[in-house]
Amino acid sequence: MTTQGATAGASSAMRTGAELLRSLDDGRQVFLDGERVGKVIEHPAFREAARNIARLYDIAAAPELRERMTFTSPKTGAPVWRAWQIPRSHADLKAKRLASETWAEATFGLMGRTPDHVAGFFTGFAAVPRVFATGGKQFADNVVRYYEQARDNHLYITYAIVPPQIDRSKPAHQQSDPTLYAGVVKERDDGIVISGAQQLATAAVFCDELHLACIHPLAPGDENYANALAVPLNAPGLRLYPRRPFARAGMSSFDYPLTSRFDEADCFCVFDNVFVPWERVFVYRNLEASRDQWWKTPAHLYGNHQAQCRYATKLRFMVGLAKRMNEMTGNDAHPAVNIEMGELAAFVTIIDAMLQAHETVAPIDADGVLWPSQATLYSVMALQSELNGRMLEIIRELAGAAMITLPSSARDFDDPTMAADIARYMQSGKADARTRVAILRMAWDFIGTEFGNRHAQYEKFYGGASFLVKQNVNRFFDWKRSTAMVDAALAMPPVEGD
Question: Each residue of 61-81: pLDDT tens digit?
Fold first, then answer.
């Protein structure tokens, strides 16, 4: 039960995409369409997404990008991904942003769980390990040791941190069966045994390791579920159930240019008596540590700083598609279109400026660790679900019927009669028919397909329900400064003559 690359003592060589792909043939249990998947990288639902993730490894390993994508491991002296760097200055956080943007641009912001996402969480855990020591010093030691192992071996980690939606009216320990939610069922001298289910491990089929924890509030009595740990994806008893894949056999990359390449495969995880050695346990039956790992370390901030880098990149791609679409339909100079495009550009600029504000107003704690601005981060996350929906609606208005009056498939270009009609009637004033159709197909794939609608749902609930994120903003906003101004206004002396 070992993980490819997780060897004692890291090599100075960067892990390559080919090495990642080879590591996925490790016996992991992935079930889809009524059967167990054989080789992940050969299955049409996963093949192209796996190759695009592998490209990220090769980008990070490219000598010309060494400074942008890596920093020097303080333990081995070898280059490791910038995602694992604990920022101690505003320049460090900027460097992490630039690295994440480079990866995000390679997938047009369409893959949310690239290797730098959960890396951010473990970097935050390792930055303030005392939070884990509330259950015993060994747990703090475990999280730091695991962070170093993952960092120095370029591990790709996903997480499952939300319990299944069975009966949300009851806490975990009052469910009809104590093993519905993933929790401890046995303690041994050498570790613990976990049974139950957890969601939603996006990209798990492509990862080395799974981080099991719980970000939902837990109540007294829920101690069996108040754990944090890591297991290899091929751990005996761990089963992955990806949602219905959008990429499929025979899918044309012309008709579905995004779906065919960037479907991440969100996975439901079942733990069937999965053994976890003590050295891979970071929180054990500890309600306080289970809660505080997210909020009393910068983990949630680092992970979501990466997520906002990815989201800002995706929005730039989104409005670029809208621009090209307008050009194809000849509407680009129309005043009404200019107004709509100006609104889109304003939203993208706000998101990008808020992202960069994390770096300029980020505080540095007493230990010298920089924390991205909580009020800034949670404010943009609170508005993300509303702004994203508004932006998609604007693009639909701009498109009109353009995306639903296209040829049925790329094969239509192969028939002489059809091709002649398409060339004559589906050209634009600036491009031939094939170019126009390709752009509008991509816009439809972004907005109208199952893949596109999954992305709309993903962005709407990425940070959790918006009311929860807004509670975070309320908690971290500087209310004292605002109310002090009100008090000062109330304390003004009477106006002469009153």
Answer: 999 999 999 999 999 999 999
Q: How confident is the model over 223-258, as pLDDT tens digits?
A: 999 999 999 999 999 999 999 999 999 999 999 999
DSSP-assigned states of every residue in 226-280:
--EEEEETT-TTEEEEEPPPS--TT--TTTSTTHHHH----EEEEEEEEEEEGGG
pTM for the predicted model, two decimal places? 0.92
Q: How far apart are CA 483 and CA 237, in angstroms?
A: 55
Neighbours of 63 (CB within 10 A): 7
- Encoding tokens for residue 247? 């990429």
Q: Count of CB atoms within 10 A of residue 244's CB?
A: 12
Burial of 33 (0-12, 13-18, 19+ CB in 10 A): exposed
Q: Is 481 helix (H, G, I), strand (E, B) or coil?
A: helix
C-beta contacts of 464-471 below 8 A and 24+ residues apart: 466/382, 466/385, 466/386, 469/378, 469/381, 469/382, 470/382
- The Cα–Cα gap between 228 and 286 comes to 9
- 8 Å CB contact between 235 and 194: no
Query: How many Å apart are CA 69 and CA 118, to the nearest integer?
Result: 16
* Torsion angle of the four alpha carbons 59, 64, 67, 69, in this order, in degrees rounded to the nearest 10: -10
